[in-house]
Write a structure and sequence with these properties.
Length: about 220
């Protein structure tokens, strides 16, 4: 077996969002033959949404904007210390959890440049829906307990459409994906359009287990 050395993959936060969306669309094609692929569809959608919120909220003093209030204070203290001590040690980054990120993007002037007079459109019902994806599905998939359960997937395409709309608003506001080149922004727009289609993902019956989560 030949051992490959020096293999690297580079990305920034905006490219990671685009990659997560591509993976959600790719994984959807495998759900008919392998229902377990729904796990990766949902995890990729969660990743795309969380990453997009971070891109939208982060200011020029990164990572301020997307971090917890306490962590933002630590970063401000660090930036102040840098003025007199170039060897000041930077703090760790503690991003807000997805539910808090989603609440933040709804606020006027929530973008990192503060120029959006209205927040991202996300109703209380939609916020609660997406929060369930975070609390009950993403966390269960990442920290899988020794148990059987079933996931009603008929609502996943609608979740994808909602996430596509939210990320699309961020894209049109300009700040979140400003560092993507024109071609990459066009590709992102095309993937969001695919995700917005009603039939972007086939729906299968993954079978019945013990616990049921319906969307």
């Amino acid at each position: 077996m030949t051992e490959r050395e020096g293999l690297w993959v580079s990305a920034d936060e905006a490219e990671d969002v685009a990659g997560s969306l591509r993976h959600a669309l790719r994984a959807a094609h495998f759900t008919e033959e392998d229902p377990q692929a729904w796990k990766w569809v949902l995890l990729a959608l969660h990743s795309a949404l969380q990453g997009a919120c971070v891109c939208h909220l982060t200011t020029t003093a990164a990572p301020i904007g997307a971090v917890t209030e306490r962590n933002a204070g630590e970063w401000l203290d660090y930036f102040t210390a840098l003025r007199t001590d170039p060897n000041a040690k930077s703090p760790k980054t503690y991003l807000m959890a997805l539910p808090d990120l989603m609440k933040a993007i709804r606020k006027p002037r929530s973008a990192g440049d503060g120029l959006n007079e209205v927040g991202i459109t996300l109703s209380d019902a939609e916020l609660a829906w997406l929060r369930r994806i975070h609390d009950e599905v993403r966390n269960q998939f990442v920290h899988f307990e020794p148990m059987g359960w079933s996931l009603e997937v008929s609502g996943v395409p609608a979740i994808g459409q909602l996430i596509a709309r939210v990320i699309g608003e961020m894209l049109e506001m300009g700040w979140a994906f400003r560092h993507l080149g024109a071609d990459n922004r066009s590709a992102l727009r095309a993937d969001l359009a695919r995700l917005s289609c009603e039939d972007w993902a086939p729906v299968t019956d993954p079978g019945a287990q013990s616990d049921r989560l319906d969307f």
